[in-house]
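Colleagues,

For the teaching module next term, I've prepared a clean inverse folding example: a structure given as tokens, and then the sequence designed for it. I'd like students to try predicting residues themselves before seeing the answer, so please don't circulate the second half yet.
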């Protein structure tokens, strides 16, 4: 039997890859343009399997920036080469490559009726953790499967957290709070009206550019107003988010808003702890059934040093898990924004914002 060569896809493979795509799939095909994109992209691993210089299969893994998660986006094997173990070789190679890039998890979607593929994934250690209805163009449901590459899965011991996508570029804070509140009380409405109401209550009015983001105290007050207990860990007393705001008039307005939020916090007896919440404390809060909304720097997600609010949806011995309300890439859809695993080492770097090293966490409970 001729040897199977597993290697990285190159530009000269494009025609063969396009032909293979047309042969293997009737719906949900990658276009020739997208295949060309992924051959060149630096946020993916694109491997091909060739026999005597003819491509008989490929596997494409998308790397989620700032995360230990990777997603198997597509895998294909020519009908003429099935039974040779090519899919297994591609998956083993892609897992090795992902591990070398410090990825701990691979997720994938597979048609619920594709029994052969499901059996292969299960044989290689992938576990079903969810079903996504009407996922494919032909309206088939998809099983969501995951494999942890390095260590055994742990029980997160946290309630189900629904995912909500922010509807504007400046409402990550309200979206994160809504997910946290809905995890505690499923009757909480997840919709734009409430999202914008919370933003109006919590906005700092100005940011470095665009609409104002949300102040930690403003978010905490909005959560408390909606009938939840909320405590705030905030390590700074000075006016927040002034880094990068050069206009003195805007700075003065932001200082006024900051002062008003602190006065409202006193009036409403909002508990503000002027300290950094440790990883041990965060994990303890989650074990108590409390939900956490935390401020991060988006730099590790999108290369922009912007404040961004996310929900902490779980923790185990190696990672914190996030619900991110803002998918940064159309190829990395909302499925990859739920229970997004972040190693605790990366999490520590991610949860510091600005020159003043701002840290803030909302602890929400019944």
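(Answer key — instructors only)
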């Amino acid at each position: 039997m001729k040897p199977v060569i597993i290697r990285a896809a190159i530009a000269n493979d494009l025609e063969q890859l396009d032909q293979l795509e047309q042969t293997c799939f009737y719906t949900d095909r990658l276009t020739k343009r997208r295949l060309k994109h992924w051959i060149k992209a630096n946020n993916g691993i694109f491997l091909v399997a060739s026999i005597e210089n003819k491509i008989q299969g490929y596997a494409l893994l998308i790397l989620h920036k700032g995360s230990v998660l990777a997603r198997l986006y597509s895998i294909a094997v020519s009908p003429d080469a099935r039974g040779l173990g090519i899919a297994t070789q591609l998956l083993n190679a892609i897992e090795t490559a992902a591990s070398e890039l410090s990825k701990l998890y691979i997720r994938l979607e597979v048609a619920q009726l594709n029994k052969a593929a499901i059996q292969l994934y299960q044989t290689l250690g992938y576990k079903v953790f969810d079903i996504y209805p009407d996922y494919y163009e032909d309206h088939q449901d998809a099983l969501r499967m995951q494999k942890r590459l390095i260590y055994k899965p742990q029980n997160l011991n946290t309630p189900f957290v629904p995912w909500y996508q922010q509807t504007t570029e400046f409402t990550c804070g309200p979206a994160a709070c809504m997910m946290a509140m809905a995890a505690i009380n499923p009757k909480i409405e997840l919709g734009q009206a409430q999202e914008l109401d919370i933003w109006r209550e919590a906005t700092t009015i100005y940011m470095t550019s665009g609409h104002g983001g949300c102040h930690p105290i403003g978010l905490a007050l909005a959560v408390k107003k909606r009938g939840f207990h909320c405590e705030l860990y905030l390590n700074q007393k000075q006016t927040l988010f002034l880094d990068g705001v050069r206009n003195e008039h805007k700075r003065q307005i932001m200082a006024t808003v900051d002062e008003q939020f602190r006065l409202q916090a006193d009036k409403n007896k909002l508990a503000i702890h002027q300290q950094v919440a440790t990883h041990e404390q965060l994990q303890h809060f989650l074990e108590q059934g409390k939900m956490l909304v935390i401020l991060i720097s988006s730099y590790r997600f999108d290369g922009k040093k912007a404040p961004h609010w996310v929900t902490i949806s779980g923790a185990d011995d190696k990672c914190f898990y996030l619900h991110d309300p803002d998918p940064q890439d159309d190829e990395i859809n909302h499925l990859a924004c739920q229970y997004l695993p972040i190693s605790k080492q990366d999490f520590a770097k991610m949860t510091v914002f600005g020159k003043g090293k701002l840290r803030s966490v909302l602890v929400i409970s019944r």
